[in-house]
Structures are given as C-alpha cells and as structure tokens.
Design a protein that fits this description.
67 residues, mainly alpha, elongated
C-alpha cells in the first residue's frame, strides 16, 4: 500500500495537469484559486514528500514483545 499510493497520486496529478493544460496555459492565475489544480498539486507534493519516510517507517522491523 505504501508503495502504490505515490504512484497513484503521481498518475492522478499528471492526468489532471494534462487534461487542464490548455485551460491553465490560457490563464495561469487559475492555478492559484483554492478550488481546482492547487489542492491537487499540493496534495501530490505532500504524498511524494512523505512516501520515503512512510515506507521506511512501515518496513522497519519491530522488536519482539517481552513477556
């Protein structure tokens, strides 16, 4: 799961950028609106930035419980 989330989010963000490229190219200030591409781009950056630390945390072996 931790490995597929960055791939899915990257594909989703790239698909949205591709579909909206002409729209954004005509008026780039639309990117700054709070609804639309801005939240998608910021969430994609968050997912990609946290992917490696999350994968490391999930793959770290845990010590056996004592008792």
């Amino acid at each position: 799961m931790a490995r597929t989330a960055p791939l899915v989010m990257t594909a989703d963000a790239l698909g949205n950028w591709y579909a909206n490229w002409a729209w954004l190219h005509a008026d780039w200030s639309r990117l700054l609106r709070p609804v639309g591409m801005l939240p998608i781009a910021l969430f994609a950056l968050f997912v990609l930035a946290s992917a490696i630390p999350l994968a490391r945390a999930l793959n770290t072996p845990r010590p056996a419980p004592v008792g």
